[in-house]
Design brief:
Blueprint: H1 2-6, H2 12-24, H3 28-36, H4 39-49, H5 54-67, H6 72-80, H7 83-93, H8 99-112, H9 116-124, H10 127-137, H11 142-155, H12 160-168, H13 171-181, H14 186-198, H15 202-207
Length: about 210
C-alpha cells in the first residue's frame, strides 16, 4: 500500500488498494499489523488529498473503521495522524451528499472517539456544528443514524465542550427526532438516551 501511495496512483488503483486494506483488516491480527506499519497515516493523507474522490474515501474510511475497531493503541495513532479532522472536514462535511462515505466516516469516528484526546480534537475543530447538517440530511437512514449516535455518545462522554456544542447546534431536538423516527429500533432509542444523560444541561433541556 505504501508503494502504491508513494507512486501517487489515483482513482481505481487507490480504490483497490484501500479496498484490499479494508478487507484484510477485518481480521484482528491485521488491525495490529496495519497500525504498527503506518497504514493509519496513509489513510489520513489519502482522505485529505483525495477529497473529491468518493470511491477512495469510502474505502479509506472503511479500512480506518476496521483498523480502529476495539484497538485502543490505534485510536491514539489515528488522532495523532489527523484522522479526526480529516473524517470531519473531508468526509462528513465535504461529502455530505455521499451517504456511504458519511456512514463509514461516522463508523470510524465512533471508534476513535473512545479516546478522550480525540474528543478534545473534535471539540477544538467545532465538530458538532459541522456534523449536524449531515446528521439531518441522512436522518431517515437507520444505519447512518446509528453510527452518528454512536459517535456522539462517545464524543459527549465527559467532554463539556462537545456537550455544549451539541446543545448549541440544536442536537437535543435532533435526538428527540431520531428517537421518534426510529422508535422501533432499541439501539437508536438507547443511544439517544445515553447522549441526553451525557449532556445534562437543565437550562438547555428546559428550553427544548
Amino acid at each position: 500500500l505504501g508503494d502504491v501511495y508513494k507512486r501517487q496512483e489515483h482513482g481505481p488503483i487507490l480504490e483497490k488498494a484501500f479496498g484490499a486494506l479494508w478487507n484484510i483488516t477485518a481480521h484482528r491480527p491485521n488491525k495490529v499489523l496495519s497500525g504498527s506499519h503506518g497504514c493509519i497515516g496513509l489513510v489520513s493523507r489519502a482522505i485529505s488529498r483525495h477529497a473529491q474522490d468518493a470511491g477512495v474515501l469510502l474505502r479509506a474510511c472503511g479500512a480506518l473503521s476496521n483498523i480502529t475497531s476495539n484497538n485502543v493503541v490505534n485510536h491514539g495513532r489515528a488522532g495523532a495522524a489527523g484522522c479526526v479532522e480529516a473524517l470531519l472536514d473531508v468526509c462528513i462535511v465535504g461529502q455530505r451528499d455521499a451517504e456511504p462515505v458519511v456512514d463509514k466516516a461516522c463508523s470510524a469516528l465512533w471508534n476513535i472517539s473512545a479516546d478522550p484526546t480525540n474528543r478534545t480534537r473534535f471539540a477544538n475543530a467545532g465538530g458538532m456544528g459541522k456534523m449536524m447538517p449531515a446528521w439531518r440530511q441522512h436522518r431517515d437512514n437507520l444505519m447512518v443514524v446509528r453510527r452518528v449516535l454512536g459517535a456522539v455518545c462517545n464524543l459527549t462522554l465527559n467532554c463539556k465542550p462537545n456537550q455544549s456544542q451539541l446543545c448549541d447546534a440544536g442536537g437535543v431536538q435532533e435526538l428527540y427526532e431520531a428517537a421518534s423516527r426510529h422508535r422501533a429500533d432499541a439501539d437508536v432509542v438507547c443511544m439517544c438516551n445515553k447522549v441526553l444523560q451525557n449532556c445534562v444541561r437543565p437550562d438547555v433541556l428546559a428550553q427544548s
